[in-house]
Write a structure and sequence with these properties.
single chain; 103 residues; mainly alpha; Arc Repressor Mutant, subunit A; coiled coil
């Protein structure tokens, strides 16, 4: 949810902590009393270098963004390979049906 708030932010700079909390309250329907949890999770993301904090603004680190893009590309490639195998199987079945009709 925090990463979603950061990536969906439309301002010229990254969102500040209050913008992230507002996103969590409005879009994710999170109760107000969960603010400490979101804040501690944000600090954790900074510590593991998933999120970068620059002058009280937050953005997704380039390393995390690159790793996510690679993972998404690998997933898309795997899905494409499965679809290609299914298409080859369907084509082979169609050819077998045509050959069976000819005999």
């Amino acid at each position: 949810m925090i990463l979603e708030a950061i990536t969906n932010f439309t301002g010229p700079l990254g969102p500040d902590r209050n913008s992230i909390l507002l996103y969590a309250e409005v879009d994710a329907n999170m109760p107000m009393y969960m603010e400490p949890l979101v804040t501690s999770r944000l600090e954790h993301l900074i510590n593991i270098e998933t999120v970068v904090k620059i002058e009280h603004r937050y953005s997704v680190s380039q390393g995390y963004a690159a790793a996510k893009a690679i993972a998404e590309a690998e997933l898309a490639r795997a899905e494409a390979e499965v679809a290609a195998r299914e298409a080859d199987c369907a084509e082979a079945k169609a050819e077998a049906a045509v050959l069976q009709k000819l005999q």
